[in-house]
Amino acid sequence: MINISGYDDIIIVDREGTVIYCDLSAREHNRNNDEEMFGRGIEELYPSADEHYPAVEAVREGRAVEDFTIELESTFGRHFTKKGCAFPVFDGDEPVAAIEYSTSFYDRRNLMEIESHADVPIYRKNDTKYVLDNMITGDPEMEKIKKRIEKLAITDSNVLIYGETGTGKELVAQSLHNCSRRFMRKFVSVNCGAIPSGLIEGLIFGTTKGSFTGAEDKEGYFQQAEGGTIFLDEINSLDPLLQVKILKAVETKTIRRVGSDEEVKMDVRIIASTNENPQKLIREGRLRADLYYRLAVSCIFMPPLRKRAGDVRLITDYYIDYYNRKLNMSINPPGEDVRKVLDGYFWPGNVRELRNVIEGAFAFAEDDRITLNELPSHMLREYRRKGGQPRSDVVMTGLTPADYAEEIEKRIVEEAMREAGGSITEAAELLGISKQLMSYKNRKYEG
Fold first, then answer.
1. Are strands 269-274 and 159-163 parallel, antiparallel or unpaired?
2. Whole-angstrom Cα distance, residue 360 to residue 107?
3. Neighbour count for residue 347 (Cβ, 10 Å)
4. Based on CB atoms within 10 Å of each CB, which residue in 38, 240, 249, 420 is the most buried?
5. Spatial distance between the Cα atoms of 267 and 273, rounded to a whole number of angstroms
6. 13 within 8 A of 56, measured Cβ to Cβ
7. Would you say 65 and 87 are in contact if contact means Cβ atoms under 8 Å apart?
8. What is the pLDDT of residue 188?
9. Could you tell me where the DSSP H helices lie in 154-288?
10. Cβ-Cβ contacts under 8 Å for 316 (sequence gap 6 or more)
11. What angle do CA 316, 128, 154 make, to 5 degrees?
12. CA distance 212 to 427
């Protein structure tokens, strides 16, 4: 009996190697949506695939491939490893198709891609990647929030979420959607602060052909979310006139496309968020009070990470396990010296910043444990300012003065490159040296 519980992806091919069905978590490997692949050859999904591709071999030979590991190239030219199993489907004695269950493992260089991965196929289809179980916490107040989400999910009430950047407001919004009766329909997320003011009205409400130069008949985000949920992130960044139009849509449950006189009914649950206290925003005129009262039928306040007792350690261990699984690595939990630095940090970027720290540590870790060497230097400086004395993980006894100086320089160069995200230009600016000298130093110590 083949155990398929540990796999994320499903592909079904016929005798010709044509894709009959696929549901892939790693969408970034392929230029097409899953549905667009139906009826196409497996080589269009993975250009490096040939007649030895496991599913193709299973249907051709009429036998199961119970444990395969294969190196593949995506349509974007990225290389990755796939592990899984494939077994044939018979019509009588004739193999007519094959089903493949698999999981893709990423290269360290592609760490950012992992964030678009969703483990549960049903949620990939509604454009979400988070469910309530993704809220990792042991904090009593956060446990109350999780119970509140479950209760709010059975209603269609509008919800306003507020909290600092990185506290997990979209996680809450997606969890509300996925716990609700609307979970089979789309979840449409709109970052109101990231869209130019001249474009956002048309994107939210849709456009009518001829309403302005180049305009086409196009659905807006509200219509795309029909029957589901729309999440208006940083709604306070919208200008007052657009806030009035949002208010009308909320009150009348209708929208009007730009350039149209027709009112279109909508059945959409609205979840909004702000990264500042709503009362402060109202006082400063950045959020209309009438819109606030319409949206804040129920409010959820997300506390900052520094106020969540014990959660830094829980979330650290969660992401270490997460990246181990996705990168097929075996990094152990950090030692107590690293724990103390993480526990004592202020975390202005909250959970998002902690995730990025762990991600960066995985990218640079050379051993089987995250050490102080993999932590950003500003965190160590803050710890020292507070009286902590994290020990060095590099023992340099027995070195000549010249070797000692070179080792110190190497660590400075590596730390600058880490903080600059691999950018030679930014690393040079951090150290106050020329780009050419930084490039030379980086080449010198890379090998």
1. parallel
2. 13
3. 22
4. 249
5. 20
6. yes
7. yes
8. 96
9. 169-179, 197-205, 221-224, 240-252, 278-283
10. 333, 334, 339, 342, 354, 358
11. 100
12. 45
